[in-house]
Design brief:
The complex is a heterotrimer of chains A (409), B (402) and C (456). With 402 residues, chain B is α+β, with helices and mostly antiparallel strands. Helix content of chain B is 46%, strand content 8%. Chain B has 2 domains: 181 residues, no CATH class; 124 residues, Cytochrome Bc1 Complex, Chain D, domain 2. Chain C has 456 residues and is mainly alpha-helical. Chain C has one domain. The chains are: A mainly alpha (409), B alpha+beta (402), C mainly alpha (456).
Chain lengths: 409, 402, 456
């Protein structure tokens, strides 16, 4: 540790913090998988069942979007609270957040059909159906194609500009070492956090909650947020492990950092359960028909089974799995739970989206796999694209020394 | 400091800074001592490693307590609400797991917290009223700003000269010999014991009262803690009230008032009479079918059976109880199978249900019109069953009777 | 810890920093006479406490008819006061537990008295449901005790969950508080000059002498308690919110209630902490321990949680419209423009508008501005509960059953009296117990590093 400290002071860095050839290699592989996965999805989707394709695509999209937004939220949070432990890993978070243009691009297969009045996913895309229903008619001021697109443009422009700006300022500090950048970004991140909360909430409402436009829940944004944070941290842990395996950051990132990431995974697993229980219990208890219907579908038959399984796999099992500090500090164990959480978070998205397609059975198909793998590939490729020519560590951040020497108690 | 060797309890070294103490710890640890400890005003970061302290088992105790707490919460709510004292609330199942989750959580945390604090105290052997170190004036600063290292004489490696040399080599402020504590008594102070005994006895008093209350009966009326809740300033039914011209608290309905289920035009239905004569037929609006019969049976068992008995013999539980009490004023309920009742027009039976007869109160205010007729219908069926000739029974019924 | 902006820069420094910390804190409880300000405050608190006593006495004598509760508002100020005090009681454990887990070491300056505040606030909170049920001799019905009637509590009722949640919270907070004080009681014992003090503080310290083998288990237990207390804090106000949110009443039934109540509780609790901290540091000369840096951090937390509360207000409004339910829409329209609009705008001004001054560094480093905002937020949080309880009940589904609730003198005297209880307990605590966690402050002091490189 002492040696690392000295070299950091000298201006060099006693660790491999450049992607170099690895970036283009990763871009090639991940991008290839992405193109093949999405191509296969489009091919299969348009030749067979459109509804299946649309719902599988939205499931995968809600999943990948939550990781991207989770990354941006995390970076904003680190600046806002002036976090010290995370400085050494913050650049990787910034790179994951810089995928916003790609995420905007990936939303097009959902947005364009809606814009063309296709109501396979969103019934509100069809204005005739909206006006035929008294209750939906009342919501037409919000639930219409034009406003939907306007909102999406606002979200993605905000996320894109913010993530780009945070990354570029951080990179600028690598060169100039200007310490005032820290306080500048902290000041910027306070109002940004408010906008993050609002955009994340409304994005969750727009993409997922309006699938069932008569159903509503004030906590829905928080629910999606909880899932986004827990899955981002899982993805983050895996990304760091992969980098270390490839010789990057091998010395700088220690068990202490994994321990903290693991704590966040653990805490937000519990937070997700708290939010999920609150939403369910309140609707179950009050038993108001327009709210209960949403859970009624998910509480019976095959979906009922999924719901019960989710109690175990999304909460009980990872909760006890991540309870011990040894697990959080052990790369293999933490990696296992990170993969686990990403899978069960995908199941959560499946559970949110798919009952809209079939209330009786589980419409699982090969499209779910191809869409998810395809988007994951594109997401990683986008992050790898941003990582070219950059340091993986903000080498002149004034907090770096503390982050490197950081120890949990 | 001079001392008798037998009196020695250990050697205490005093340091000014935590870093000096940590450095000393490493030396003592490496010298292989076992019965030693350091005393500090706050937890010194990194001293566990320097002393070689192993991780405590406390988390496991807490985990066990958490599971016990959870099991208690599940058991408590299941037993009390789903087994021992069942009743329906807001249409939820007796054993409503979603509604039980908050208490599951709270008791889990409660048990764990107790285990964390008391587990810590027990593992630390606290409370520890006295210690040989207490008699050293310098040691008073241990809770303020000084850092101490203490090696007990009981340690296998302890050797006065050798240990003294070791400690001197760690740059302490001073090294003191600590004597056995022969001043503090092993006995608890007498006033303390006495006070504890008194408290223990006093604590039993409430339980004694509860036990007495459970074992004895009293004729005294209950205590009215808040009189104006039990005797409210308001008029009750049948009381006089000078405010009204007829002097009664109860008010008659305005003339021409019609209750919602009354049909003033249909005397047959509402009074059981036509032109002042009791009718012998059921009103047209009452359908004679199994559903009406079942409803009549149900209402009969609620309203009539307590006195008249389930089979109409005049032997309901109220009648039986009155007979055992042998009160002279009791008029036994009528057995409903008697001939004169079998001949009575249905309109008159309806009238009795509606308005009562002799000691029997009217049930018109409790049973809606249609259901009064259903009761009459069921009454007819009871009467017929009681007097049914054997010839009218089917073979199966006859077999069942035998 | 020696960061440029660390609040510890203003903490006692020098060769014997530990002794100075001990002296600064212990002195408050050791001086023969507390400052005059303490006597004035204690006099006011005692008068209010006697108001509380008289009000409760009159309430028990007369019954709950002395409240303003009247059809259709049967849950009124007693419940508002209950939720208000429970909310205040959240910041203490939050500071002790969550900030501990988040390694926010600045908490050590304020955690002890925030914990004390928690406990006293929960005591005040617990009294109100007891008063409101109107049968003060039957509170044991709320507990699952074997009884002659073979009746058990109704565990499907959120009000029963409250009994367990608030009871557990009170117990665990007290354990946590006491455990934190054990080493400091040891300090008080060792500094005692009279036999009585030595005996009392000695008994409370249970023979704590600070051996490292005990510190090790102690720290582990503290960490476990903090980890337990964190979800517990969330659960308590969530359960309180369930009292409302499980109902079908417009304005009460919202799924966001649990996190929204928790954020509001932290918000109100921190406001109360600064309301107490600013005068306390002034009176007792603790400015070098509770620094402006600490106050600024708390101001930031007040701003952040105020924004969360604002988020919940806006989500409620949006979903009231989006849900398309006429009753729900009307309720929110009625809140903003109906007969209780004054309370609604008072709440918005105090909770959402007033913390905005903290965007300015100048404002959030001025103790008196912080105190002012703290008081406003306390008022606003009381009105938040008033708005939720009263506006929703006074105008629900049927216009024929609408009404207008007016509190009576006794409603207000009980509220004022509860402040008397709270401040009396708090002032006694300041006088007799270690007001700052000395051991913890020392442990995070720059010269506490055991690695041998003190001057890095």
């Amino acid at each position: 540790m002492a040696k690392t400290k000295e070299t950091a002071k000298e201006g060099g860095f006693g660790d491999n913090i450049r992607m170099d050839g690895l970036a283009s290699k990763l871009m090639g592989i991940a991008g290839g998988i992405g193109v093949v996965g999405l191509g296969a999805s489009f091919g299969l989707g348009y030749t067979s069942d459109k509804s299946q394709f649309m719902h599988s695509y939205l499931t995968a999209y809600a999943w990948i979007l939550s990781i991207g937004i989770g990354a941006l939220w995390w970076v904003v949070l680190q600046h806002l609270v002036n976090a010290k432990w995370s400085t050494v890993v913050r650049r990787v978070g910034e790179l994951l957040a810089s995928t916003m243009p790609m995420l905007a691009l990936l939303s097009l297969p959902i947005v364009i059909p809606a814009l063309m009045g296709d109501s396979t996913l969103y019934i509100w895309a069809d204005s005739q159906k909206m006006h035929a229903d008294h209750l939906l008619h009342k919501k037409a001021a919000f639930l219409n194609r034009d406003f939907f697109v306007v909102r999406l443009v606002i979200y993605f422009v905000f996320w894109g500009v913010l993530s780009r700006y945070l990354l570029s300022k951080s990179v600028e500090q690598d060169k100039t070492g200007a310490p005032e950048i820290r306080s500048k970004l902290q000041a910027l991140c306070a109002p940004s956090m408010i906008l993050m909360a609002l955009t994340l909430t409304f994005a969750a409402i727009d993409f997922v909650m309006t699938l069932e436009p008569k159903w509503y829940s004030t906590i829905f944004g928080v629910y999606y947020f909880a899932g986004a944070v827990v899955s981002f941290h899982s993805f983050f842990a895996l990304a760091l492990m992969w980098l270390q395996k490839n010789g990057r950051l091998a010395k700088s990132v220690t068990s202490e950092h994994y321990h903290d990431i693991g704590k966040m995974m653990f805490a937000f697993t519990a937070f997700w359960a708290y939010i999920a229980f609150s939403q369910f219990m309140l609707i179950w208890y009050a038993n108001i028909p327009e709210e209960t219907e949403w859970y009624h579908v998910r509480a019976h038959g095959a979906w009922g089974t999924v719901s019960y399984v989710m109690i175990a796999v999304n909460f009980l099992i990872p909760f006890f799995g991540l309870l011990s500090r040894h697990v959080k500090r052990n790369r293999a164990a933490l990696g296992f739970w990170a993969v686990w959480i990403l899978v069960v978070h995908w199941l959560d998205m499946f559970w949110l989206v798919k009952p809209h397609m079939h209330t009786e059975h589980l419409p699982f198909s090969i499209l779910d796999v191809t869409c998810t793998v395809g988007m994951l590939g594109m997401f990683i490729a986008a992050a790898a694209f941003s990582s070219q020519k950059l340091n993986l560590v903000p080498i002149k951040d004034p907090r770096l020394e503390k982050s490197l020497a950081f120890e949990n108690f | 400091m001079s001392h008798h060797d037998d009196d020695l309890h250990g050697l205490l070294a005093e340091y000014e800074t935590p870093s000096a103490l940590v450095a000393a710890c490493k030396k003592v640890r490496d010298a292989g001592y076992a019965k030693w400890d350091t005393y500090t005003p706050f937890p010194v970061h990194g001293i566990e490693k320097a002393m070689g302290i192993r991780m405590t088992g406390l988390p496991w105790i807490v985990l066990a307590a958490a599971l016990v707490g959870l099991a208690s919460a599940v058991g408590l709510q299941w037993w009390t609400n789903a087994v021992d004292y069942k009743f329906i609330s807001s249409g939820k199942p007796m054993w409503s797991i979603p509604a039980n989750v908050p208490v599951y959580f709270e008791l889990t945390v409660l048990f764990s917290a107790f285990a964390a604090l008391f587990g810590m105290l027990i593992l630390n052997n606290l409370p520890e009223p006295s210690h040989p170190l207490d008699h050293l004036q310098a040691f008073g600063r241990v809770t303020d700003d000084r850092f101490f290292l203490y090696i007990e004489k009981g340690d296998a490696k302890f050797d006065l000269a050798e240990t003294q040399r070791l400690l001197d080599g760690t740059h302490p402020v001073t090294v003191d010999a600590v004597n056995e504590d022969r001043r503090t008594s092993d006995q608890l102070p007498k006033p303390l014991v006495l006070a504890a005994a008194v408290i223990a006895v006093v604590a039993l008093v409430p339980f004694a009262f509860i036990a007495k209350a459970r074992a004895t009966k009293t004729d005294k009326p209950k205590i009215h803690a808040m009189g104006d809740m039990d005797w409210q300033i308001k008029f009750q039914a049948q009381q006089p009230n000078p405010l009204f011209s007829n002097g009664m608290a109860m008010r008659a309905p305005e003339p021409g008032t019609v209750a919602m289920d009354e049909h003033p035009d249909d005397e047959h239905l509402t009074a059981g009479k036509v032109d002042g004569q009791f009718v012998r037929t059921f009103p047209a609006s009452v359908t004679i079918d199994d559903a009406t019969m079942a409803r009549g049976r149900d209402r009969y068992q609620v309203f009539c059976a307590p006195c008249h008995g389930v089979s109409g013999n005049g032997d309901g539980p109220v009648a039986q109880r009155a007979m055992t009490l042998a009160e002279g004023t009791w008029v036994p309920p009528t057995a409903l199978g008697q001939d004169y009742l079998r001949q009575m027009p249905v309109g008159q039976l309806y009238d009795v249900v509606n308005n009562g007869v002799r000691n029997m109160p009217g049930y018109g205010s409790q049973i809606p019109v249609d259901e009064r007729w259903a009761v009459v219908l069921y009454l007819r069926a009871l009467q017929k069953a009681k007097a049914a000739p054997v010839g009218e029974l089917t073979d199966a019924e006859r077999a069942a009777l035998k | 810890m020696a960061m440029a902006q660390s609040p510890f820069d203003l903490a006692p420094q020098g060769e014997n920093a530990f002794a100075r910390i001990t002296h600064n804190v212990a002195r408050v409880a050791e001086v023969p006479k507390p400052p005059r300000g303490w006597y004035i405050a204690f006099g006011i608190a005692l008068s209010l406490l006697s108001v509380f006593g008289v009000s409760i006495g009159w309430l028990f004598w007369q019954g709950i008819g002395i409240f303003g509760n009247m059809n259709p508002v049967f849950w009124a100020m007693p419940i508002v006061n209950f939720v208000f005090w429970v909310g205040i009681g959240h910041a203490g454990t939050l500071i002790s537990a969550i900030l501990y887990l988040l390694r926010q070491n600045w908490r050590t300056a304020i955690n002890r008295f925030a914990e004390a505040m928690t406990i006293f606030a929960v005591i005040c909170a617990g009294i109100f449901p007891g008063l409101h049920v109107g049968r003060p001799w039957l509170p044991y019905w709320m507990f699952p005790l074997p009884n002659q009637m073979s009746m058990w509590p109704q565990f499907r009722s959120p009000l029963e969950w409250d009994v367990f949640a608030v009871g557990t919270y009170f117990t665990v907070s007290t354990l946590f508080w006491y455990m934190g004080m054990i080493p400091d009681f040891g300090t008080f014992r060792d500094r005692s000059t009279t036999k009585l003090r030595k005996a009392i503080y000695g008994a409370l310290a249970m023979g704590w002498r600070g051996p490292s083998r005990q510190w090790h288990r102690y720290e582990r237990a503290y960490l476990i308690l903090a980890a337990l207390a964190t979800p517990l804090v969330l659960s308590v106000h969530s359960v309180v919110s369930f009292d409302f949110a499980t109902a079908q009443l417009p304005g009460w039934h919202a799924t966001i209630f649990p996190p929204y109540f928790v954020a509001g509780a932290i918000f109100g609790g921190f406001a109360m902490v600064v309301t107490l901290a600013v005068p306390a540091r002034q009176f007792f000369g603790l400015k070098r321990i509770i620094t402006v840096g600490h106050l600024e951090l708390m101001a930031k937390i007040i701003l952040a949680t105020g924004m969360m509360v604002g988020y919940a207000y806006s989500m409620e409004f949006f979903i009231a419209w989006y849900g398309g339910n006429d009753y729900e829409m009307f309720t929110f329209f009625n809140r903003a423009l109906g007969p209780y609009a004054w309370s609604y705008w008072c709440m918005i001004f105090c909770n959402v508008v007033s913390p905005q001054v903290f965007w300015s560094k100048k404002m959030r480093t001025n103790p008196w501005v912080i105190l002012g905002v703290g008081v406003l937020v306390n008022i606003g949080m009381w009105f938040e509960r008033f708005v939720i309880v009263i506006t929703s009940l006074s105008r629900d589904f049927l216009p024929s059953s609408w009404g207008y609730y007016k509190p009576t003198f006794w409603d207000f005297s009980l509220l004022a009296g509860s402040f008397g209880l709270f401040f009396t307990l708090f002032l006694l605590f300041c006088r007799y117990l270690p007001m700052v966690a000395m051991a913890e402050v020392k442990a995070f002091h720059p010269s506490a590093h055991g690695h041998g490189d003190e001057h890095h």
